[in-house]
Batch of 3 targets.
Target 1
Amino acid sequence: MSDQDNQQEKRKQDDNKKIDQLKKFYRDNTDKIMTTDEGVKISNDENTLSAGDRGPQLLEDFMYREKLAHFDRERIPERNVHARGYGAHGVFECYESQSDLTKAHFLQKAGQQTPVFVRFSQVAGSKGANETLRDVRGFATKFYTNEGNFDLVGNNIPIFFIQDGIKFPDLIHALKPEPNNEIPQGQTAHDTFWDFIGSNEESAAMMMWIMSDRTIPRSFRTIQGFGVHTFRLVNAEGKSVFCKFHWRPVLGIHSLIWNEAQKIGGADPDFHRRDLWENIEQGFYPEYELGVQVIEEGQEFDFDFDILDATKLWPEEEVPLQMIGKMTLNKNVENVFAETEQVALHPGNIVPGIDFTNDPLLQGRLFSYTDTQIYRVGTNFKQLPINRPVCPFHNNHRDGSQRYIIDKGQVAYHQNYLAGNTPYTVPGSQGGFVTYPSLVEGLKVRKTAPSFLDHFSQARLFWNSMTDVEQSHILQAFSFELGKVNVPEVRQRVVNLIGHISRPLATAVAEQVGVEPPDKSIKQSDVTKSSPTLSLMNTKFLPNTLKVAIIVGNGYGGNALESLLESLKEVELKPYIISERLGEITADNGDTLNVDATFLTTSPVLYDGLLVVGGDHINDQFAYEAGNFITEQFNHYKPIGGMEEGATLIQQLGIANRPGVFISQSGSRQFTRQFIDGMAKQRFWDR
């Protein structure tokens, strides 16, 4: 037998051995009945036990408690989700009294200020993940009110993947790096995530949101925040309304584009936290308005969606948004671990005037977050400075790990004589918390409420609301994500799911990822309405604090550039001088400029716009590097300006007459105005 025959025989034996191993793995790991850790067979792993279809969830649900308690302890000490985060301190100011809606003390008086702490975060990645990966961003705010802490714990997307908290471990297990190889980090472009999406129709609307530009934000300063869940507001007379909370950035809502986001991740993996830190340090304080949507109790069933379903939003055309206050972040943390990492945010932290609803995902979080914080930070995590309320607090809790408070006296129980029954309870009329007496009725069931079963109408609403540019980005996102999925059947199942939302989109994605278009039996949603507020193209975007790269060489026109820099700074644009080497460069009039970064130490993707000035003594290498900056900015649709020698460099590239490209030999006032207006527009999609 020849060597070639021996090699073929060996390969054949190796292949047969692998097949036998796969068969054994399949036999050992399939056809298994799901049970609890005690071996109790599980009949329903999709729904938490609740009182009626839409009723509150029951503490007796041992299966839910076991599943979530185990999940909460899977990672130490890093957060299981939202591990990579960054925080800042600030203040919230109420616009005018909201006493008709709520008795919450911090919303009773115009001008009333409340200290806050905000933690922005990513859901999927570890603490070391790249910050510009496609991901949902957490937007969690702790209000230190006079009545205790209120935590508004949400995301930059108004809905979520699932309807019931019992499925949260499954979602995160599918989202996280696959356990056999711990790949990929902080990304959804892999088999298990899309297998979960394709297997859970309730995720259809969220699927559209995460494939949009919302999940690649420009900065923490330009993202929206949403409480996601339906809460109650209760006023002093005991009247209740349903409520959703919104944060709106004053600068406007702005995102990266995918190619840009990938490159920024390599150029600066700390891009978002650096942006937040630097702007606060420089006095450019991020601002966000707080808005509420309100539905009267009698209107609960007036909509074509269930208002308690966390996979649904309330369209602003049907439920208007009213702004009630503004938050300003004005102080960076002094120690990231002590503050940002140890802050324990929890949707169960509410104050009188704010209450819960039977939203099943919210109900699940009420257990899970406390359980997680006790495990992760310790029994007495609420005594840490970042978590401690600003109002006095007293109770009979004692001991436990890392106890900070030194309790005095011999009494640690309620209803006592020895301490004069201190601490004592107070009635609701004196500020004691009283749960809103909503009606609860129904049989104990594990069941999805029928009103929660429409999974495609709002996904279609979102698609209808996108501009052509945004729809093309969503197509690109699906093509990239599913293009990373190895199993064709998983790609096909997701394409079929998309077919319920938009058959043309599904067909286009199918062509890109090598599967069949949806079968004709798959019915596309017939929703025709749209919600313009869902499109990022309809947001007002301010140029303040945007970064302008200015490429300058020796012999530049000193008078013209000095005038231009003053104009940029007047509108709070932030210029950065880029050149061949660090140090000073000299103008034609003898003025000098300090160089902030070199072509080697920075990247064009880190800036929101570009001005090319050049100089009398630029060489071929300088022109080459400047050309790379111009091309990158042009390809990302950003504003570009050129003056003096810089105008010539732009003309040589053949883009001088394209939208958003401004040139002037002298740097006139008109040129400066055009460039500033271009920065306010930010993207020139008609290129």
Note: Residues 3-29 form the longest helix (27 residues).
Target 2
Amino acid sequence: MSLNSARVESLKDIITRPTRVISYPKKADGKPLYTSEFFGENVFDLQQIAKALPKPAYASFLKQMRGRQALDRATADAIAHAVRIWAMDRGATHFTHWFQPQTGTTAEKHDAFLSLKSTFTAAGEEVTAIDAFSGSQLMQAEPDASSFPSGGMRTTFEARGYTVWDTTSPMFIQEGPHGTSILYIPSVFISYNGDALDEKTNLLRSTSAVSKSACELLNLIDPVPVGAQPKFSHVYTTLGTEQEYFLIDRSLYALRPDLKTTGRTLIGNLPPKHQQMDDHYFGHVPSKVMATMSEAELELFRLGVPVKTRHNEVAPKQFELAPIFEEASLAVDHNLLTMDVLSKVAHKNKLKVLFHEKPFKGVNGSGKHCNWSMSTDHGENLLDPTVKPETNYRFLLILVAVLHAVQQHGALLRTSISSASNEHRLGACEAPPSILSIFLGQHLNEVLNSIEESRPIKNFSVPEIQTIKLGGTVLDVKVATLPSISRDLTDRNRTSPFAFTGNKFEFRAVGSKQSPAFPVTVLNAAVASALQDVTEALREQMGDKPFPSDADKLTVIKKFIASTKNIRFEGDGYSDAWIAEAEKRGLPNIKTCPEAFEQLLKPSHASMLTKLGIFSQSELNSRYFIMNERYAKDLLVEANTMRTLLAQQILPAAFEYRGSLAKSIQILNTIEGEQQSPELEALKGLTPVVKELQAAIAGLDEAIAKLHAIHDDAVAEAKAASDYILPAMQAARSAADHLETLTADRYYPIPRYSELLWF
């Protein structure tokens, strides 16, 4: 079967394939279970641990979770025994330490609960099969670390690494083969010398840094009597990750070598209709997609992942799933679990999830909007402005600390979202630009401006802010049946990479494919450092007084409002005027990934990260090497994939079409005599484009050779990939896309955008 025939058969299969049907959980009387009745049933959470452990052992475990003591062997053994029984009763045969190496995904190695016990008698050794799981097996495992990125911190022959149970994230089971299941133990991944080899270790360090810095500030401005315990002992960052993704048919995906290898289409033209009608966004969810969404949500509910929202996104075949806010490190685990479950369920439904930030040229890319805030151990959201933010000095101190964090380390935040894939998305089709700025909204901007200028707030009244009255008269048409609705303090700005959205900040620039761990780690670190700066300024202002007065707080707030003015921007982030304005303000406009990676080792950023204990200098050097190496490899894989696709499928299809035209011309000339037939005109139009593509392929070969000529220098390779590979691929794509418009459909070997983007 030719590729073209396979393409046609795939399209037929899409039309005739039945939708997969699953059973929703039901009660004994046949009625459906409420979601809350089975939510988290596959999670070994604190409630399960409390049931399984004696009270002293459970109290000991809680102290360990809160960082007050080490986990003793007896408690670890008790938890291991309890979780083994719980998991095996649910079909588990294996366990795995689930961790997040710096590969952009998760990793796992499965071990069976099965063990052998030897008993020696007079008759000899008797071997008995038993099921066992010890506290030491729960606490740590030893995977081969030599094949994971380490950035030169260790040599390949030094293979040892450790996965260590992260007790703050609950264990869970997932479906295995043939009706079995697997126990997952969320873990960190460290080297033999204790260096972080993963994404989670640094994230946990950053959350501790935020807690320490925030508690110091809060206890300073909200003191208790001498000798009493401080009011605030723990502050945690919260995170909600809106996950965007594309869903396409798996049979068509299998016919696109570029999608299979790189996650994006390296060639292809937009169909006549794509997203320009704005009719896909929030539209009716296609039945195949709804079936996949519902099945994935069912699995996620069982895993304790609080998914809340689902809808069509802007581009055809683009969708979004969003959860309820959780503590940041748990939210990261749940986001990675969500991506994994979506992929598995889509496969069962003969669909393919694309998490690449820009799988299709010319339509919206996908992001992972990270909604970030801070909460106290009393459950208070520190970024809640309340009704009168102008007099809420605690909120204003936290707010200016965040502004200061982005002002000082915006370039580092740009580093955290830099990748070969996200580079295609930033600044295009509703994606935020690469210049980091903060959108606060009209009301909060006015609040800050009025404080800085020591004047009353202009043009705002509380009732006006709180409600929108739809029941009044609009253009003399009464709509009295419609109720009044609440109005947020701020509007939304889709062109802002970091926007305040009511009681949180939305870091919109994070890419859909990447783990949110590193961007959130950097954000946490920057905020922790900024909170220290605000606290220090407050101590200087209050002098010898035991606690700051409102006047002291206001003076410090004014100081940071003035110093962070440049980072605040309310306008269109896509405009050329903003690029010029940002340059005047001194905001970095980092255009390429290699340039962004350099920020990681810049002294002002590196010293902040190491001073807080979030990274060691060797870990920073390692990550810098890994990011450059990964970028160069990603582009090299794309270039080689593109070269193969063009040379082995696209050009031969064009040659076959040219041959068909030439044969037709020859036959027509025999019948009608030589003349300028339409076929000859088509052939003349095709030939120069074919030659252009051949030249572009030669240019690709040259660019690839330049990259191969560099040895053992990841930084030089990344720069060469940016300087040579990207332009060569752009030239090749331009020629290939032109050729697609000229090649008859019956000869075109791979699915076109018109087939990929519509069910």
Note: The radius of gyration is 29 Å.
Target 3
Amino acid sequence: MTQPSTSTPVRRRAVLASLASGVTVLGSGCASRLRAATGWQSPDQVSLQIKTAPADADPYALRIARQVAEWFRTAGIDVQVTPMAEEELLRQVLLNHDFDLFVAPTPAQFGTPDALFSLLHSRFAGRQGWQNPFGYTNLDVDGLLEEQRRSTGSDRRDAVERLLKSVAATQPFTVVGFPDDIRAARTDRFTNWQNTDLQSPMGYLDLNRRGDVEDASLDGSNTPLDESDADEPHLEVVTTDERPTQNLNPLAVEFRRSSAIMGLLYDSLGYSRNGVTVEPWLAASWAFSEGDDGPVARIELRDDTVWHDGEPLTASDVEFTYSFLADTSLGSTIETEDGEDDSGPVPAPRFQGRSSLVTDVRAVDSRTVEIQFVDCEPRVATRALTVPVLPSHVWADRTGAASVGGIELGGATEALVTNNIPPVGSGPLEFVRNTPRETLVLDRFDDHFLSRDDVDGVPPQLADAPAFDRLTFSVVGSDMTAAETVASDDADVTGTPLGAATVPRIGRASALDLVVRRSQWFYLVGYNARRPPLTNPRFRNTLAHLVDKRHLTSEVFKGYAQPAASPLDGTRWLPSDLRWDGEDPVTPFLGTNGELDVERVREAFRDAGFQYEDGKLVGG
């Protein structure tokens, strides 16, 4: 497999706002010239639309958006807040790039420096998914993202520090804060809730059964369990996210809130338990050597691994997976939206940051594969080993042009639009059935390597995991209903994080455990840097000064969140002068206690090259 060229045809990329590249500080005169150069000289009031999910889908996003809109209006900006279904929000933002601003939580994978590569590098500015949805282009940031891949030790730390400070100054997005992951759980059938992360598949595999068979003879409602339930009880999960019941395509970014279900259905070569190191999983082992253009990994697969349909899993499937993620058309010609044929690659909208580390894959034999990486350190390269391995005998037939109702969709393949039901993976759980918007049922896959008596290379607590023979996800309409469902013993745990408003209800229920842990993901206000005046980094920086993160933490999250100034807050990579210390260290709020100081705000916008007419913010 050879990695496709990174130069994408113009008609399939958004035009990069290159004039903003590398700019971190602009005087008002330079800002005015920048707007003139980008064709934006408007006497009209600055008008922005904020898109976000509705309250029944997200307990925080809409409230954040409305408060931010209120601050923007105080600053003289015309603002509209538009809530929409999560699936449609992600489609408009991540796939179509049709937005001014959006408020949403990020996926959980942005916890290491290299995770920022696909999020911010300009080569991804026209791609779909969480690959630079902001259209952000900054040559300094590009260079630092590339430098941190190649460096080690203090050199890498220095590159990451400069990277984070440049991003904080130019604000492609404004970090609001890291919310606590709040869940309600029962402990009469399963334990270890406090030590698990249910945003990750490993969280489900880490669960323990409550005691021995005799200890599990009651299910909490004084109803005796039957013999099969006592041996391997079912895990009942209640969720407010209906999307996994409708779509199990691991490539469909708009249907994925977390990686948990996909990680239970699909194995990857490696796994990460702590977000720092990657250890072998489907791979029995790997060894790195230095190639001419970057590291090379020789990977040995576990013996006798099979797909859920009984077909053998081989090194050819691994080779196919990386080729397919880079180009889901596998080199076929796909008609674009303007009716022209285009032989350029059609990459998957997920996993591009990780799969782009790979330049070539070769199956040596049925159990051995060699992977060539870009010029990077081996520790960075292992991130590419965490993508799901796909069965070639299923996905190879999905390379043609996508169609809905017989009408072809330009520039997309069938792989990107299929709902992939039933899914065929190799993971520890296999698909049983689904009822869209209601339930999803998965069973333990008895031929998985975790079920073997002689399994090695995995943590001892995962031997013979999972601790259940069936996992059922049931959909309800609200966080409070989810908590009530667990309290009434109709579920074991809430599968999606709950809002802070549910905490008093959980605390009053003696049968429930309140499980609270800091999440690895954060809420952000994302800016579309393709659209003026958001093309101007000084304008985005000034907008960030209008967001009182401490106020949002108190009023919206009820204290169950930590305000932050950087996407790597809480990691060892955060430099001391980007740590939260009562206020944002880079873009402090222009006011106090949630109230803007209008004169300071107007002065800041004037310094950025804007003007006011009758209290309305207008272009220069």
Note: The chain has three domains: 23-171+528-618, 182-240+428-518, 266-417.
